[in-house]
Design goal:
The chain is α/β, with parallel strands linked by helices and 184 residues long. Helix 3 links the parallel strand 3 and strand 4. The chain is globular and about 40 Å long. Keywords: Hydrolase. This is YqiA/YcfP family alpha/beta fold hydrolase. GO terms for molecular function: hydrolase activity.
Length: 184
């Protein structure tokens, strides 16, 4: 079972979420894909994800991109789950403080509000030490225009890592690496 966790302002309609869903469908495993649309409020987002994990009666692998990688880190540590992190936001509060305000979601007409309280919540949630490094696969493309990839390499230094030159924040090679993700 895969729980795909999308990034800030994204949704279950994101390219990576849909590529994973399509790949699983081609394997006859479409029932192994879950991707809830998360609210901008980090407290609500993490609560929704916790409920989703608890409600499953089988092991789940987390796949998180950007802010979703931040959430996947928290949940992996809490529930002792495997997690694949794709260009994860390491210091999400710091990164997103410039996004305070109302924003249009990328895949819908919905407007999402992001507040200073949300930034403060993300700062409080930030993990500084990884307790279960064998549970993680960090996947980075160095030309990420949004994040400083070196922060992730440092935080996840004891974890499995796939560091690729080039690419971008969207992780341009995701589709080619789904089998690798599945095997982790």
């Amino acid at each position: 079972m895969f729980l795909y966790i999308h990034g800030f302002l994204s949704s279950s309609q994101s390219a990576k979420a849909q590529q994973l869903k399509q790949w699983l469908s081609q394997q006859g495993r479409e029932q192994e894909w879950i991707c809830p649309d998360l609210p901008a409020d980090p407290k609500l987002a993490i609560q929704l994800l916790r409920k989703q994990i608890i409600s499953l009666d089988q092991p789940v692998k987390l796949v998180g991109s950007s802010l979703g990688g931040f959430y996947a880190t928290i949940l992996s540590e809490e529930f002792d789950l495997k997690a694949v992190l794709i260009n994860p936001a390491v210091r999400a509060g710091e990164l997103l403080k410039q996004k305070i305000g109302v924003h249009k979601a990328w895949h819908s007409s919905e407007n999402l509000s992001f507040t200073q309280q949300d930034v403060d919540t993300l700062n409080e949630m930030t993990p500084y030490v990884i307790q279960h490094p064998n549970n993680f696969l960090l996947m980075i493309e160095k030309e990420d225009e949004t994040l400083d990839y070196r922060q992730a390499i440092e935080l996840y230094k004891e974890c499995n890592q796939l560091i690729l030159n080039g690419g971008n924040h969207s992780f341009s090679r995701f589709k080619q690496l789904i089998t690798f993700i599945d095997e982790f």
